[in-house]
Amino acid sequence: MSIEFHCDHCSKLIRAPEDAGGRRAKCPYCEQSVYVPSRVADEEEIPLAPLDENDEAEQRRLAEEARRTAEELRADRRPPADRVTAPTGPTESAMPHDLKDAGGDAEERVVDYLLLMRESQLVQAEEVLAELLRDREAARQAIERLVADAVPPPALADVPSGVYQGFLKNLRAQLK
Questions:
Q1: In terms of CB atoms within 10 Å, which of 68, 78, 136, 160 comes out highest?
Q2: Mean pLDDT, residues 77-103
């Protein structure tokens, strides 16, 4: 009896003698070196271990718990209803306080910008950017302080570090 297999290189069907199984040989078509598999007899099948019903139930429970946790995390990341504005235009500020009340503090305005970017409030973020452009140097210094801090401000603690740093880098580039 012979062993039939396909060449890994040219995909042609190869028939090799049974005693060639487990060794390397040359493909007669493309002459590349191929591994000749060993013939597996029906009696050599390895029986599967029986299923552990308790383990299966535990796996289903863990998968359901992971799904619920992911849903809760997604729900927690949604901005509160009073901070969501229509994306069509600047109707109401989505910031925790108005810019006029910021007292000219550039760092607070930079954080406001980052919060708006996190919430995809792009129209309002552009308004804050316009404010920051009026005093570029103060805004740049505020960004440098935030970049130097290892920990982001508490309002941005849930933003992944790479995203946070990307927002700061983007803002710094816009202020040049």
A1: 136
A2: 46
